[in-house]
Amino acid sequence: MGCAEAVRVLQAYLDGETDEVTARRVVAHLDDCRDCGMEADLYREIKKSLARRERPDARAVERLRGFGESLLHTGPGDGGARISGG
Ligand SMILES: [Zn+2]
């Protein structure tokens, strides 16, 4: 699973709406990818705020938006991100 796919299913995963296979792939990616792991943490914070009917942290929302847009610009198979180690 790449970052674009992980981000696309991240919200559904946190809402418990993905199937087990997808959920496990997301977990594996979040474990592997620090960027997406941080995005997942941000989503959780925002969801918590919304659950309490508080306004989510504007900076967190802004960061998520920027991350999604950066993925759109790089696109898959563009030779951008390289995964080191293994
Ligand atoms: Zn990632």
Number of helices: 4
| Helix percentage range | 55-70%
Order of helices and strands: HHHH
**What is the average of the pLDDT values?**
84
- Tell me how many strands there are: 0
Report the principal-axis shape.
globular
Radius of gyration, whole Å: 14 Å
The first-to-last residue Cα distance is 15 Å
Structure class: mainly alpha
How do the strands and helices of this protein lay out in sequence?
Blueprint: H1 3-14, H2 20-32, H3 34-51, H4 58-74
Describe the fold and architecture:
The protein is mostly helical and about 90 residues long. The chain has one domain (about 5-70). About 70% of the residues lie in helices and about 0% in strands. The chain is built from four helices and no strands. It has helices at about 5-15, 20-30, 35-50, 60-75. α2 (about 20-30) crosses α3. The longest helix is centred in the middle third of the chain and has 18 residues, at about 35-50. The site of zinc ion has 6 residues, from α1 and α3. It comes from Streptomyces regalis.
Short description:
By secondary structure, the chain is mainly α.
Which tags fit this structure?
86 residues, mainly alpha, 4 helices, binds zinc ion, Putative zinc-finger domain-containing protein
